[in-house]
Design a protein that fits this description.
Strand order of the largest sheet: 3-4-7-8-9-10-11-12
CATH superfamily: Aldolase class I
Distance between the termini: 40 Å
CATH topology: TIM Barrel
CATH architecture: Alpha-Beta Barrel
Number of domains: 1
Helix content: 25-40%
Strand content: 15-25%
Radius of gyration: 21 Å
Structural class: alpha/beta
Shape: globular
CATH class: Alpha Beta
Number of strands: 12
Number of helices: 12
Length: about 300
């Protein structure tokens, strides 16, 4: 199985730059102009891709939740009606597709039901994301597998046995696994970043990190632990209405995140000890009276 996989012409995995995805999710609150502003933010920050979420509300919402009333920007409405309010249809996604192509950024989606896979297939996405909530949905896994596209499998709220079972439903040659904890926002003590290395040891595929924490420090730590790709939710303003906003990164934070990940990549090096040209003058000056017997 490959240690690196191509997504939209970019290599993701060992010996390649960290693939950074800005997760727009449903933080657009059903407004296309907000979605396009989120795309602009991802482009400005230098992200490789932006991700959305796609659901067929009547299939993705359990029957017992459909009539539950919820306070929303549109007033007190049922949960099913709310799901329709934040869901984009063909015209909106066609514009998202056009706009991302114009801006030169990849986009893809996490599909929460099989009909949504058929819907997103119309736009020939570079890959699919399986949300943590869908990791045990065998029918959905097999549907996404059938597209033949790379798949990013998120592993929040899952046991290792569940992860192993999900992996058997997917093509190991097109699989990427994301460590994640499904708490929004997630406290540092539950991030368990060493799971990145545990997953690297358990599965022979690129392993990354999908974070829902507040702040950037722990995402940088994920990169130093070897995360091949990073995904963070983004928002125009964390005070906006919506369940994911509080665990999201605002525009300036996203710019710092991408900038500093690129610095960290350069700083990590290749692990081979060498004497750099920039050290030679100091070496000559500070060691002129020293010598050591070499074996």
């Amino acid at each position: 199985m490959p240690k690196a996989i191509q997504i939209g012409g970019r290599w993701v995995g060992q010996d390649h730059p960290t693939f950074i995805t800005a997760e727009a999710g449903i933080n657009h609150n059903g407004d296309l102009n907000t979605a396009k502003r989120l795309i602009d933010v991802a482009v400005m920050a230098g992200c490789d891709a932006i991700k959305f979420q796609k659901r067929t509300p009547e299939k993705a919402v359990p029957p017992e939740l459909r009539d539950v009333m919820r306070e929303t920007p549109w007033g007190l409405i049922s949960y099913l009606e709310y799901r329709y309010k934040v869901e984009f249809g063909y015209e909106e996604y066609a514009e998202i597709d056009r706009y991302c192509r114009e801006k030169g950024i990849l986009w893809y989606a996490s599909c929460w039901d099989e009909d949504s896979v058929d819907f997103i297939e119309q736009f020939s996405p570079p890959c699919y994301k399986i949300a943590s909530a869908s990791l045990t949905d065998t029918a959905l896994l097999e549907k996404v597998h059938g597209t033949g596209r790379p798949v990013i499998l998120s592993t929040g709220m899952s046991t290792m046995d569940e992860i192993k079972a999900a992996v058997t439903c997917l093509d190991p040659g097109k699989l990427l696994i994301a460590h994640s904890t499904s708490t929004y926002p997630c406290p540092p003590e539950e991030l368990n970043l060493r799971m990145i290395q545990s997953l690297q040891g358990a599965f022979d595929c690129p392993v990354g990190y999908s974070g829902h924490e507040v702040g950037l420090q722990t995402t940088f730590a994920a990169v130093t632990l070897g995360a091949a790709f990073i995904e963070r939710h983004i928002t125009l303003d964390r005070a906006m209405w919506g369940s994911d906003q509080a665990a999201s990164v605002e525009p300036w934070g996203l710019m710092r995140l991408v900038r500093d990940i690129r610095v960290i990549e350069r700083a990590l090096g290749d692990g081979q000890k060498r004497v750099y040209d920039s050290e030679l003058k100091a070496r000559q000056r500070l060691r002129r009276n020293h010598s050591i017997k070499l074996n």
